[in-house]
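FW: tagging you since you asked about this chain on Friday. Here's the raw sequence from the shared folder, copied in full. Didn't touch anything.
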Amino acid sequence: MALVGSLLWSTLDYIWELTGAWGLISISQFKVFGVVSIEAFIWSFFWMYFIIIFYEYFFEKTRKSQTTTKTTKELLLTTILIFIFVGIIVTFFYKNLAVPYSYSVLGTLCAIPFFIVFLHYRKIRVRLFHAGLYFSYATLIYEVVGLYLRYWWFPEQGQFLLRFNFYGFVIPLEEIVLWIILSAVSIISWYEFFDDDRKIKF
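HL: got it, structure written out here
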């Protein structure tokens, strides 16, 4: 699941960097398709793996894989669709992509599984709330450190709905809502729906 998620994240990062939603520094001169830093893929894999393994260890009662044939097929189909999506983006929109408010649009789409799981699977709400609290705090610290050290930045290109000044750091509204607050619980929701047993009663 972390591998599939990192592929999706790298695709979104490609779009976000191309449309000026943010910029990233890299320790390597090599960039995938000339746009995405190699660290983006490596980091996203371990970040998602950390969230999933945290959730499994602290919130799941079983300590063994609960993946079913159905969820495996759905995950495989999702992976194939992601590769097709990446192929279309790279083939037809390479360096000429224009997506207004790309962070808001694509970030909200990624958060849809969270809203579905939260609304329909009641027993997972408490788990999502506690996991969300922990990761919101951890992500906020990570965000401030990253901005302070200029690991990434948000260009002023009219790509954000609102921008806030947080102790001297400019943080867009989308970053606060979609990244700091909802990113971890969205990943858990994707995992629970596509790669876990989905044994959560309505």
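FW: The longest strand covers residues 163-166.
HL: agreed, and The chain has a mean pLDDT of 80.
FW: great, closing this out.
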